[in-house]
What we know:
- The protein is of the alpha+beta class.
- Helices cover 24% and strands 21% of the residues.
- α1 crosses α6, α3 packs across α6 (196-215) and α5 crosses α6 (196-215).
- The longest helix has 20 residues, at 196-215.
Amino acid sequence: MPELPEVEVVRRGLAEHVVGRTIEAVEVLDARSVRRHGPGPTDFVARLAHRRVEAAHRRGKYLWLALDDGSSILTHLGMSGQALIGAPDAPTPRHLRITLDLDDGQQLRFVDQRIFGGMAVSETDPPTEIAHIALDPLDPRFDDADFVRRMRRRQTGVKRALLDQGLVSGVGNIYADEALWRNRLHYARNTRGLRVAEGLELIGHVRDVMTEALAQGGTSFDALYVNVNGQSGYFDRSLNAYGQEGEPCGRCGAPIVREPFMNRSSYRCPACQPRPRNGRW
């Protein structure tokens, strides 16, 4: 699933190509991609026709386009969603689900192979539907000290805390593993056992690794993760832990290991990130 850097790359592309444009026509090719829009596809189309896009925003992994009537188009990419810009007569991509024709002759296309993502019209800007989603580490309003206080009150593993979108948004498996590797923390380390300095260092590493990934266009392991022009990111070449099973640790040379974690995998260096001792789970 795309994480914060990948979604921010898409947001920047939308800000460049869609903001200031008027939506002239909308077509829903697969109703499943607007299933979160309660009134249905017909209403979705009617609500967007002739609306002007005023801004492109993001919170964590959610995107929304602010419209001139105070409403917004809320978008989640899910596991395979893409927001692509192109000419209406360009070859139709596989898994095309929604098209929005813009007044400059371009077309915003929502493509989604697995259909876990989708679009919906929200009555508000920002959408009330994501009010429960926490700020992300790249938001200037994010409070590191408050995050550490709330994290240390919990009785859970540190990686579980990083993946909790109600505590901090935008962090997924890739960047959690990378930040924990940089901080030399085991993913199951109990948050109550973390020192304040360790927590502050950890969120700093989360921010750093996301910023570095963003500078390289995000992390693309396959053709599903692309920007609005269909281009892949290159941060996968800079990963130290995630996806590096069997490769030597960049610090100590020990082979990186992969272990089951929450129906997915977690990658760590067994030497730099040893299992917690003395009940510090």
